[in-house]
Design goal:
Length: about 140
Amino acid sequence: MPLGRCVTQSELRRLSIEEEIRQLENKKKRLIQEQKEQERKDRTNRLCKRMGLFEKLLPDTIPLTEEQFKTFVEQTIATDHSRRVLDGLTAQNAATATAQGAGTAGRDNTQPAAKTAHTAQEGGADGSRAQKVTAYVEGCQWGAV
């Protein structure tokens, strides 16, 4: 803006609003970054706790190579029986979340419904479910636990 020019009240207001918008956008970005960081911390914490429990219950899996561990998981955990147990537990969580949501709906304080696991049909009979588990296991850094 040139120096000798008079600034009108409306221009000052517009500039003030633009500055406020810029500040709010930066605040939104910062909050999103904080949320993502917290989600990463929560995931790391969950993975460490679950793998710790896994190794506590099955200490013989500790010396396995990555390939041996992958084979173990594919042949023992990624089975139809395990899927049925998991689906049952997931259904219980969904029912609990629904019941809690109904109890708090009047207060406009609903809980998000639990995410349900893929069914055997969604996982596919061609072994793609085992591939998903394998990809998940390979994506984790077990040595860091």
